[in-house]
Amino acid sequence: MPPESTASSAPSSAAPPASPGPAELVESLTAWARETPWVEWLELAGSLGRGAGDEYSDIDAGVGLLDGGDLDAVEHAVTEFAPTAAVLRQPFGPETTHLVCIYQDGRQLSLVVMPSATRTGLAPEALALVDKLDRLSSSLDRATWDPDADGRREWAFLACIAAGDALKHARRGTYWRAIRSLTEARDLYLQLVAAQEQVVFPQFGAVSLENAGRPVPDGLAATLVGSPDHDAIADAVQVLLSLLAPFVAEHGLEELCRALRLDVRHEGPDSPR
C-alpha cells in the first residue's frame, strides 16, 4: 500500500508569491531620470502608458540621453532599483539599445535607450514622465506606424507564402515546421485585420487588437492545431485561407495563390470576419 501523500510531496496549487508590482519600479526609474543630468526625457509605454496596467504588467519605457550618458551607466542604474536576476542588451536600431532587466521578484523592465534627439514627440499611447526640454510636448502622428497599401500587400503576400509552406511541410511529414509556418501566416493575417480595424501599432497583430478591445475574427480558433499531423494542419490552413481571402482579393494575389496550389475561397461578402 503506497504511503499517504503529504503536503510536501503533493503538487501545490497555491498562487506564487505576489511581487511588489510595477509602480515602485516606475517611481524609481522616474526619480533617477529626473535627477540624472544627462537624461533628457523618459516616456512610459505599453499597458502602463495606456493606463491599463496591473500588477502583472512589465515596465515598457524609453529614455533619451544627452551627451555624457552611456549604456553602461543606464544599466548600472536600473540594476540598483531592486535585486536583479539577469540583464540583456539587444541592438534596436542606430545608436539605440533595448535593455531588458529581470528582477529577482519576477518584475521586468524593458527600456529602450537612445540619443535624446532621436525623438521629436511623444509616441501614441505613451506617457511623458520626464521631459526636461519639452521634446515630448507634442504627439507623434499615429499614422506613422500604419502600413500603406504596399505594406499591407506585403503582409498578405507573405501570409500566402507561409500558408503554402505549412501545407508543403505537412506533406513532407515535417509537422513542427508546418506549425511554425502556420503560426507565421496567422500572425500576418492578424496584422492585416489590425490595419483594417485601424488600431494603433497594427504590426503587433493580436496584441494591438486585444489592447484596443477588438475581438479576434470569428473562426480563428479553428486555425489552432491540436496535434501535429497532416490532416489537422491541412484543415487549419484551409480555415486560415478562407479568412485571408478578402485580403487576397483586395491586393490581387489570386495568381500567387494558384501558383502555390492554395484553395482560397471568399466565404463572406466584404469582411474577413
SSE blueprint and pairings:
Blueprint: H1 23-35, E1 39-45, H2 46-49, E2 59-65, H3 71-78, E3 84-91, E4 97-103, E5 108-115, E6 127-131, H4 149-172, H5 175-196, H6 206-211, H7 230-250, H8 254-259
Parallel strand pairs: 2-5
Antiparallel strand pairs: 1-2, 1-6, 3-4, 4-5
Helix pairs in contact: 4-5, 4-7, 5-7
Protein name: Nucleotidyltransferase-like protein
Region (Disordered): 1-22
Biased composition (Low complexity): 1-16
Could you explain how this protein is built, in words?
Residues 1-22 are annotated as: Disordered. This protein has a six-stranded mixed sheet. It has two domains: 23-140, Beta Polymerase, domain 2; 145-259, Four Helix Bundle (Hemerythrin (Met), subunit A). It is α+β, with helices and mostly antiparallel strands and 273 residues long. The relative contact order is 0.10. It has helices spanning 23-35, 46-49, 71-78, 149-172, 175-196, 206-211, 230-250, 254-259; strands at 39-45, 59-65, 84-91, 97-103, 108-115, 127-131.
